[in-house]
Write a structure and sequence with these properties.
Blueprint: H1 3-41, H2 80-84, H3 99-118, H4 122-144, H5 149-166, H6 171-196, H7 203-216, H8 218-242, H9 250-262, H10 264-277
The protein binds zinc ion.
Subcellular location: Cell inner membrane; Cell membrane
Organism: Alysiella filiformis DSM 16848
Membrane topology: Multi-pass membrane protein
Length: about 280
């Protein structure tokens, strides 16, 4: 194995551990903010109300959801700790979800894939950052149907910086990708709203497609949306069997965007081949 792939794998395991915190805490932080904002807006806050308990990505430190005992540093090692603890809290033996080590493993593997594809290069460093955002957004949207602005908006600006720094695609492609990505879903969603009178898609999806466009360019946008629709249909069929639930489109967009980012050249080659073959 190349040294950079191994390095990316280990970095990914550590970043995955942090992503678990983001995935769990960010939606709670958003809801706390909305509650606080609504109370202020409606004049429901008294002068001597107690300050809400501080809750962000750093405080309070991680602790068991059942007994509240703190997670010690040695219990915080990606995957290994979960295996040593056999998936149970050290104090009260409540099971710890297998999702935590799985998110760590997934992050490690995807970072390794990026490093394997792009080698020891700035694109790999940026690509790992993109991967981390995509994983956080995918799980948060699947859990809560939110795509937090705190993640989608920076991802748009980071996409421009990435292409400006590495020349992965031209800045023109990145700019058009972001604009067309946002506008196409915005128009589609508003047309649907006029027609059916209900929201078909969340505003977070527009921002996410804008971000994916900023990273991968206008040239890849159609393929990404098509791929996302396919992922959505497959996931929808599986879910429909399981239980009736609204589908989040965000994860499909994120996954399709990531695939196109990593296999950028092959996807473009495939599209050109298909267009040529179809006589366009
Ligand atoms: Zn416990």
């Amino acid at each position: 194995m190349n040294i950079e792939v191994l390095f990316a794998l280990i970095l990914g395991l550590l970043v995955g551990s942090f992503l678990n915190v983001v995935i769990y805490r960010l939606p709670v932080m958003m809801e706390n903010d909305w509650t606080q904002f609504s109370k202020e807006h409606l004049g429901l806050i008294q002068e001597n109300d107690p300050q809400p308990e501080k809750f962000n990505l750093m405080t309070p430190p991680s602790r068991c959801g059942n007994c509240g005992s703190p997670v010690r540093p040695w219990q915080n090692m990606p995957i290994i700790s979960w295996l040593i603890l056999r998936g149970k809290c050290a104090s009260c033996h409540t099971p710890i979800s297998i999702r935590y080590p799985l998110v760590e493993l997934l992050t490690g593997l995807l970072f390794a894939l990026v490093a394997w594809q792009y080698g020891w290069s700035p694109i790999t460093v940026w690509g790992c950052l993109f991967t981390a955002f995509v994983i956080a957004l995918t799980f948060i949207d699947a859990d809560t149907q939110y795509l937090p602005d705190q993640l989608t908006m920076p991802l748009i600006w980071l996409g421009f910086l990435f292409n400006w720094h590495t020349g992965f695609i031209s800045l023109e492609q990145a700019m058009l990708g972001a604009v067309v990505g946002y506008m196409s879903l915005w128009i589609l969603s508003n047309a649907y709203k006029l027609w059916r009178g209900v929201d078909g898609m969340g505003g977070g999806d527009f921002k996410l497609l804008a971000a994916v466009g900023a990273w991968t360019g206008l040239q890849n946008l159609a393929v990404i949306v098509l791929m996302a629709a396919c992922v959505g249909i497959v996931a929808g069929l599986i879910k429909r069997v399981a239980k009736q639930q609204p589908m989040a489109f965000g994860p499909c967009l994120a996954i399709a965007g990531w695939i196109v980012f990593v296999w950028h050249d092959k996807v473009l080659y495939g599209v050109n081949w298909w267009l040529h073959k179809s006589g366009f």
